[in-house]
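Pinned message: reference record for Helicase XPB/Ssl2 N-terminal domain-containing protein
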Amino acid sequence: EILLLVLDGERVHLPGAVSSRLAVRIGRDVPDAAELAAPAPPVLVGVDEVDRTILDRRASETAYATVAATAELLAALGVQPARELAKGGLTLPDSKRLAEVCGIDLEALPRLFHRADEAGLVLRDGAYWLESDVGAAWTQCNAADRWQRLAEQWLSRIPPMLRELVARRSETLSSTDLRDDVRWLYPAGGRWLDDGLDRLVDDAEALGLAVAGEPVESGRLVLAGEVERAAAILSAHFPAEVSRVYLQHDLTVVAPGPLEPALDARLRGFAEVEARDLASTYRVSAASVNRGLAAGESAETILEFLLEISLTGIPQPVAYLVEEASKRFGSVRVASADDAEFPARTVVRSDDEQLVRTLAVDQALSAIGLRQVGPHRLLSRFAPDVVFWALSDARYPAAAEDREGAILRLRRHHLAQSPPAPPATDPLGALLDRVLVVADDDATEVAWLARQLEAAARAKETLTVTVRMPGGTTADYLLAPASVANGRLRARDRKADIERTLPLSAIAAVVPAPSNV
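Predicted structure (tokens):
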């Protein structure tokens, strides 16, 4: 009130600087006097003709789908980070890859990714997005706890005043009602406020807090701060997690429901996810087993794990594949090159001369530029881990080793470390500090003036511009702004029909031109 209003007894006055700034916005993003005088939207008692159990089940289905898609997003980023464009957003190839893995439309990926970002599940490291250590811990939780984390993050983004607003309509508030109430209470919010509400409502739908714009029980509980209770209600309709699978002779592993997180993570270490739904399918292949062996598994540990979780034992084709892959593992070795072989950084060797010749001419490996330098050796200018994963992706039984020939265990899972939490600060004190700094900064006033003139130039509007003259007097000019650059305004004088150029520092005020101009 001290900054924007002047109180004179029972009367309230707007300072001239405030009124002039608001005047140019009336009718565009600020309502006029009649709209401001309108009463608040009524709180109606709704007649609920909808079967709430159907809405609650739909909310649970949507919430589970969001949690599952987020988990797949993190798994995909752990294997291969996604690149951020300089102009913002992910590259198209990465977007398509992630959307396919998550089982969602390409258009839905940005919001899914943004929710994961706001929850701290993903982090940007340079030009790439990776799964965070927080995200890795999140994937080890059950579906209810995963959902609770996302819901708590959603709730934390709602300002306290808006939560109070929602509370007055907790039984009947739809997304349309919410927008009406917010626009009435915050008439100057404009497009910025509308966009923020749209994001909140979209995320509420994705988390099962509302269905088709209508509130459900879980949404009311979350807004009341009872997130844990809401998670219990929603998760009651989630598919039950399973701990056993069916191993098939065609080398597939079928889970009759969502596999427990720890088992799912272990199985993904040496099997590819082929289909992800209420029933998931994994496939064991020579390449996937080789990946598991490189990460530290052995034929014995893989078969022992499969036997523990299998309802059908271990089919002979599965056992044979694992054992044969284990025997062939390491027939191609990857290590750092000696300094004498610079600029080569990696040496690839094998006792099989024919295999070495095949590696040298394989077009699938052209990107790493393998160059044969002997019957058993090849060189590459790329780093050993890059060469190793290129060979592994091309389905060669590669193993990484140190310079003494000992096998190194490599994992492809990339994680970004979350930054430490910032120290707690007093938000009111920080705001006052900023106000004091801005109050003494003449550049702030000039910057605001420049934005108003630029907006008028874009809208082709005419303004009354008050200019400070020598001797302390002022003069009003009827100007149509053309451009603002280098601290100067270039505008057309409507009365004199000439072009004027004025320094912004000489402009005392701007107001809309009279309506008859």
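Pinned by admin. Summary line: Residues 52-79 form the longest helix (28 residues).
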